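Input sequence (148 aa), recorded before submission:
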Amino acid sequence: MKKILVINGPNLNMLGVREPEIYGKTTLKDIENMIKNAAEKYGVLTEFFQSNHEGDIVDKICSCFENKVDAIIINPAAYTHTSVAIRDALSAVKIPAIEVHISNIHLREEFRHKSLTAPACVGQICGLGIYGYIAALEYFCKNKEISK
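Predicted structure, token format:
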């Protein structure tokens, strides 16, 4: 059975409260439940992790190799634009990853336009709201690259 890890970075634990005009009123728990329900339809196991700490995210990514994770869906949040460490961890584990952003980072402040982490991923989805997580999940569930 495929195992997909969903990682959410800093401040995403505040979804539903933080800037609802940008991120909506859906909570992180709502998103996790939505992904879990979609994953069950595909017969896929999901695991969820959120941290406001860069090192914890790096440690979680590095643990994917020994925990036999087949794919990673990651919203690095603000670390998208600053973290060489997360980018290097994604590259090191050689596990396919998709970067997801609820908002369209290219329509926001200039500093958000550059992603340091996306080059270590097979793709990036932004601006589709919370559906971006489902799009990433469906890609991995239908992609032979991680078929077992």
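Checked by second reader. The longest helix spans residues 28-42.
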